[in-house]
Design a protein that fits this description.
129 residues, mainly beta, 7-stranded mixed sheet, 1 helix
């Protein structure tokens, strides 16, 4: 059964770094696309894409995290990470990793969060000013 489990969330001051990890089952790790998403508190929240990566390592970034976040992959351990540097208070959210397991895609950058079919439980990140 495909499974994703996030870890590494916590509280940190602005300007510092935090790394999240997503332990991915073997089946899910072979997905065409995997990514990290965030969900902020508030009325009518929707998940937003942070980064996604395809099997060849091609990565798409949200404009808000370009130059600050990266998405390392450990293929030996089936771990998808989110390295967050220069954190800002507006990065405060619950972060989720997800996988898109369908073989049909025109590029991971074309997917919306609702296209991803396997999700982790989420991990909270709080950045204080």
């Amino acid at each position: 059964q495909a499974q994703l489990v996030e870890s590494g969330g916590g509280s940190v001051q602005a300007g510092l770094s935090l790394s999240l990890s997503c332990a991915v089952s073997r089946h899910a790790y072979s997905s065409v696309c995997m990514g990290w998403f965030l969900l902020r508190q508030g009325p009518g929240p929707e998940r937003e894409g942070v980064l996604n990566i395809d099997r060849d390592g091609l990565t798409n970034y949200a404009d808000s995290v370009k130059g600050r976040f990266t998405i390392p992959k450990d293929n030996a351990k089936n771990i998808l990470s989110l390295q967050m540097n220069s954190l800002k208070p507006e990065d405060t959210a619950t972060y989720y990793c997800a996988a898109y397991t369908s073989p049909w895609v025109y590029g991971c950058g074309t997917l919306s969060p609702s296209d991803y079919n396997i999700w982790g439980q989420g991990t909270q990140v709080t950045v204080s000013s």
